[in-house]
């Protein structure tokens, strides 16, 4: 049940400190998450890029770029309309969906940290156990389908991210269904709007800051998003009451 006692409402600083605590305590697993994620994703890009001849478009795009922005954009539009490019895009989306359950593994690790239980490598793959895999891949495909249509507006995409922020942990920890989780998430967003939006912005910036400042550091900062979601989830929801 959601905590709704306003006087006890923790501040943004508490949520951020808690998120950094979870992240800092599990750095080895953060690194493993990134290595598995990017290892599989880059392998898929190389394999499917080769299969669908995507890399052969690079020369055409370079030549178009030399002729000006308009020519480049027109060439890009023509390439993205090809069947090969669309098949490549679908393959990469499929790979991303396959990798999504890794995020649930991080939630399991944070929960074990809270319970002072021994964390093992297998915990990182908790989202792949039994029916979990189909459940979370199915949810991601549903989420991504809507996200992709809201992305051009930016604002709607941000709203969609905020409205679905707690869906995965609610499904994972309380076994709620997708639409019930979205409904609870929406109530939480109304009650904790400022806290959630500030934390989302901080998490987004920190997630990619590692790549911007020092490339290898990104492998540690990339999964930080999960620590922030878990910290917010723990603050907003109380499963005992």
- Global mean pLDDT: 88
Structural shape = globular
* Parts with pLDDT < 50 across at least 5 consecutive residues: 3-7
Secondary-structure content class:
mainly alpha
Report on the biggest sheet: none
Please tally the helical runs, counting DSSP H or I stretches of 4 or more residues: 13
Percent of residues in beta strands?
under 5%
- Amino-to-carboxy terminus distance: 6 Å
* Portion in helices: over 70%
How many distinct beta strands?
A: 0
**C-alpha Rg (nearest Å):** 20 Å
Q: What is the string of SSEs from the N terminus onward?
A: HHHHHHHHHHHHH
Transmembrane segments: 27-49, 85-104, 125-147, 153-174, 186-206, 212-233
Protein name: Beta-carotene 15,15'-monooxygenase
Keywords: Membrane, Transmembrane, Transmembrane helix
What does it look like?
The chain is mostly helical. The N terminus is likely disordered. Helix 7 packs antiparallel against helix 8. 74% of the residues lie in helices and 0% in strands. The protein is globular and about 55 Å long.
């Amino acid at each position: 049940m959601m905590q709704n006692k306003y006087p006890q409402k923790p501040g943004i600083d508490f949520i951020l400190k808690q998120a950094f605590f979870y992240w800092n305590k599990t750095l080895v697993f953060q690194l493993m998450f990134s290595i598995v994620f990017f290892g599989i994703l880059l392998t898929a890009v190389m394999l499917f890029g080769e299969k669908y001849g995507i890399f052969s478009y690079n020369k055409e795009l370079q030549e178009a770029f030399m002729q000006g922005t308009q020519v480049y954009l027109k060439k890009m539009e023509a390439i993205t309309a090809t069947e090969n490019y669309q098949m490549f895009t679908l393959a990469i989306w499929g790979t991303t969906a396959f990798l999504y359950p890794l995020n649930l593994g991080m939630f399991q690790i944070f929960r074990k940290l809270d319970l002072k239980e021994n964390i093992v490598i297998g915990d990182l793959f908790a989202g792949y156990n039994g029916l979990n895999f189909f459940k979370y891949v199915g949810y991601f495909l549903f989420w991504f389908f809507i996200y992709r249509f809201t992305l051009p507006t930016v604002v709607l995409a941000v709203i969609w991210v905020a409205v679905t922020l707690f869906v995965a942990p609610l499904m994972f920890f309380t076994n709620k269904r997708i639409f019930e989780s979205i409904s609870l998430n929406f109530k939480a967003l109304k009650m904790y709007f400022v806290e959630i939006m500030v934390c989302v912005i901080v998490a987004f910036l920190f997630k990619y800051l590692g790549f911007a400042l020092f490339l290898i550091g990104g492998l540690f900062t990339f999964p930080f998003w999960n620590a922030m979601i878990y910290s917010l989830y723990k603050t907003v929801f109380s499963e005992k009451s």
